[in-house]
Amino acid sequence: MPKWTDDQNKAIFHHGHDILVSAAAGSGKTTILIERIIEMLKNGENIDNLLVSTFTEAAAMEMKDRLVARIKELLQDKELNKEVREHLQKQIFKIPIANISTLHAFCLSVIQKFYYVIDLDPNFRLISDDTEKSMLQEQAFDNVRNKYYEKNDEEFMRMTENFSDDRSDDGLVDVVFKLYDFAITNAKTDEWLDGLSSIYKLDAPFNQTEFYQKKFLPQFNKSLDQIISMSQGAINTALDDELGSLYIKMFKEMIEQVELVKKSAAEKSFDDLKESVSKLKFTSVPRVSAKQKEGLDTTILDFVKGVKDNITKRIRDGLINDYFIQNETDTLASMNTSAKIIDKLVEVERRFMKEFTRIKLSSHALDFNDLEHQAVQILSAKVDDKQIALDYYQSKFHEIMIDEYQDVNAMQENIIQLLSNDDNNIFMVGDIKQSIYGFRQAAPYIFAHKYDEFQKDDNPNELINLSMNFRSSGSVDTFVNDIFKKIFDRTIGDINYDKNSQLVEGTDFPDDADTQNELYILTKEHNINQVTKRQSQIEFAAKRIKKLMDSKFQVYDNKHKEYRDLKYSDIAILSRTKGNNTDLISYFSKAEIPLMVTDAQNYFQTTELQIMMAMLQIVDNPRQDIPLVAVLRSPIVGLNEEELAQIRLADKGDDYYTAMNLYVEADTSDQKLAERLKAFFIQLETYRDFANKNSIARLIWKIYQETGILEYVSGMPGGKQRAANLHALYQRASGYEETNFKGLHAFIDFIQRMEKMNKDLSQPNSIEVVDDTVKVMTVHASKGLEFPIVIFLDLSHGFNKQDYIGGTLYDVDLGIGVTLLNTDSRITIPTIQRALIATKKKVATVSEEMRLLYVALTRAKQKLIMIGFEKDTGKMFSNWDSTIVQDSGVIDEASRLGAGTYQNLIGMSTLSDNERLLADGTDHYENRDAHVELKAVQEDETQKTSTNNKVIQIATEQPSKLFRDTVNNILNFKYQHQEAVETTAYQSVSEIKGLFADPDDDEMADDLLSDKGKYIQDSFAKPKFMAETKSVSAAEVGSATHLLLQKISLEQTPTLETFDKLLTDSITDGTIEENVGKRIDLQSLADFYQSDLGQLILEHQATVSREFPFSVLMPAKRLFKNTGKSDSSEDKILVHGIIDGVIELEDGIILFDYKTDNVNNNNLDEAIEKYSGQLNLYAQAISVIRHKPVKEKYLYFLKINQAVNLSKNIN
């Protein structure tokens, strides 16, 4: 009999009350769950009287197998009691049909057994494909929407306008679908929907409403507390000297101001509170001269200044902009208008849900959400005043066991409580630190609530903590504990990482075992694109693996207590997303490192699938050039480029199919090629006829058989995998025809939708699986697994912000948060309700990202290797060093919420300045207590990365002496209206902007006057021999970059992946040339939307105009006032230009302009001066057009990820 710990014994043998087991990573929770079942069976319990819920069907199958194996092991004991032996033997035969399954599978069994209770047709199929579900939803909403449009419903039109833009009503569609996904997992869906508008229907005085006192004020005061905490942290950090005392005084004054606001917040009117908040500002900011800076610790000085700036920003963005945009009267008016819109939305939502259900039932189909709702209806339904289904299950199940309890949703918890009927028979096991399925509406707060309640003395139920980690080395445990004791608490993470939560070493690795954790930050001083950034980390991982293998790294087998050589299968590579997988496959193949990718997200990008989809497209419609040429070039036909060109020459103007026909009929054609084309025509027509009379699956199989493509790809590298991919397409087609959609064209559309929705099929496993391979998977896929060495890749990948950045937000408690569109000004006003939900969502998002980090790090048995990237390590270390640790030992909330990456969470927790030890004068750091070593390295691992902070001086708009001299020369011209003679009345900004720069004589000479009197630059069209070259100009890259920034959707925060996909699509449709696309730095574009300016744009996306064209007649005197080109008030010039971006606010306009120039710290001032005039001109033009002042003008230099506010004098 195994030796159990005291806590494990409790989890196995305690009964008579509800039990919550909080099982840390590696604590053996599945083993404990199995042993509990075994002990119950040994004591006469029957397996069919237990309900055991698992998170996946695979976990259920594994549990059944392990139960059978454990029973067989017990039966080997010759001293086993005869009665017990016979009972256990019976259980073996019952286990395959026992209620050990997912909750969805259990719900399905309830419906199949008691369908008649709610008059449900028992002949239904399960919709398991998200794409089919999405198409059915679109069909349902189309039906609902059309009825509203037919009635010309004005309230519906107003609601649609509020959630959509001028181009389409896709915004409303998105809101309806997301509201459905959120509401359907709520245990009280109808009640929740009914209450959505209630918190908007408020009367004056606002400060006396329940919403104000119970919802608004607590969050408002929490925001004030954060400012106090940040200020106190700065006070604790500031040096005790003359300058430090000045900063301490400044922060103390801020604390006093904030505490006064907080003290009076409950009594003050909303308008008075608004005024008080607007007055929050630093009143005694110390001014530090260059002389004073000499000999000072600039790190602390920079930190204190940074805290001050962050507090100022928090007051502006987190208080004023979130809550006090309007006065009380306008705020209440906006809320009441929003309430009407929400009431209409709920009406539409209910009709959509009803129509969606009707369509599903008409095609005899249910989805997973239906299983839960129908099961609840059955369990709650009464027949002759008896709940026959519920009575049956309550008497049947003596105990309900829930595995992975931290990931249940509200509806599933409702089902569990219904079945239990307060019989104190629920055994729940899970780990809130591993709740990572928020996108499936998992509700970790359910676990957290019971975790707190079960600890109370007057609660009869029991909390058991399993903290012993029998998986990982002490180094891994210590490293994990050192991070999470500083970032987890009840506010962020939903649990205090105290002694009950921290990992306790349960292994006994020898002292000489290599368990040193490694953190590598790759860096490069110049800017690189996202491909290089990604590939550099992949290449580094490959080199590290090679080095480990070549050195015969010793893995310690904790079970057998012996060392052995490292195998590839001992290594797992984890990453946050699947975006790296295709590159991993490519590079590791070249490096000859065997790899097994569980989900490559490139199924539809494989050659064989591209060929087959192209074939199906031309069977559907042969007059599609790209798929037609793809098939002709493929092994199916096998034409080469020269032959394809010959065909095109037969008809350059029409489609390629027509050119093929003309080529076959032409006398001058290559007869051998013509015969091949005739054979292809016959084959294609055969397939088209066959498709009209047979299923898609049969068509696909016919193509496989007659073209030999299955055999062909089987002979290629990775042939078995490629053949498996083609078999998967056949199976997908077979499954598709069981749905409500029919026909080849619809199937092609179905597959294309899957690609667009990122619902790419995982590559199916090939027949042969090589055991000794490096495993690659996402963090989600790794949950429950363990590996001797874990390589965690792409630590610098930004957190997912879409859950709190998007326009309309949802919350169980607060309901729905909307932005209100002012139909007159076209300005959107975020409601206070939305601001409150956004704050909660941000906390929830960061909490889940932290839990994902916990899952990733705790997969390692012996050693962790972590790899990230950072362009500016100096700034990175500075940010880590400025982390504020509260008295509780936890990093302050603002720092955690602003971390943004796993790299920063790890660094600020374990490698901040007071814990980092510098070794050998290199960028090589370690925290010996936390068992982690950090190396900031160049990609070749030989160059050292500078971590010096550079002070960037930004020029003011004062003209240089050369510029003034040039202007004076121009002013000496005698004719008053010279420009009326020498210029046209039409000028573009690109031609004018050079006049505002500070050119030298040569540059000035390049600005010429044409014979038509138009200011021009020396920019002739390329001659043919240059146009045909493969070289790419900076202008071409700049234009393509601007195009991507114009086209990228702002509905969600643009990421590296979304820009990558947009670039791929743009190359495919020909709007961007491939050689130009390769030169675009996509990472800098993604970084832009992580900047303050990018966040500002996303926050006001509804009022953002990109590539804003304008034409405005402007006085020449006003236009050229700084150049000396004119001083006549009568001269006017029509100025035409395109502004990169405009944010139109109620009180003014913000301009922004991206620049792709190769700017660095040395020439930044020059670049700012060069473009200042251009932005000034934009500001003049837009203020004339919009009749509003321009509040701010931003230049954003993508190369260095820096915004410059030209409206301020920045030093």
Brief digest:
The chain is an alpha/beta fold and 1211 residues long. It contains 49 helices and 33 strands.
How would you characterize the overall build of this protein?
It catalyses: Couples ATP hydrolysis with the unwinding of duplex DNA by translocating in the 3'-5' direction; ATP + H2O = ADP + phosphate + H(+). Pfam families: PDDEXK_1, UvrD-helicase, UvrD_C. Keywords: ATP-binding, DNA damage, DNA repair, DNA-binding, Exonuclease, Helicase, Hydrolase, Isomerase, Nuclease, Nucleotide-binding. The strands form nine sheets. A nine-stranded mixed sheet has the order 15-16-14-17-22-11-25-24-23. The longest helix is centred in the N-terminal third of the chain and has 35 residues. By secondary structure, it is of the alpha/beta class. The chain contains 49 helices and 33 strands. It has six domains: 215 residues, P-loop containing nucleotide triphosphate hydrolases (Rossmann fold), CATH 3.40.50.300; 113 residues, Enzyme I, Chain A, domain 2 (Orthogonal Bundle), CATH 1.10.274; 126 residues, no CATH class; 215 residues, P-loop containing nucleotide triphosphate hydrolases (Rossmann fold, 3-Layer(aba) Sandwich), CATH 3.40.50.300; 154 residues, PCRA, domain 4 (Orthogonal Bundle), CATH 1.10.486.10; 141 residues, Lambda Exonuclease, Chain A (Alpha-Beta Complex), CATH 3.90.320. About 9% of the residues have low confidence. α18 links the parallel β6 and β7.
List keywords for this structure.
DNA repair, helicase, 49 helices, single chain, 1211 residues, nine-stranded mixed β-sheet, Restrct_endonuc-II-like, Enzyme I, Chain A, domain 2, Rossmann fold, alpha/beta, six-stranded parallel β-sheet, 50% helix
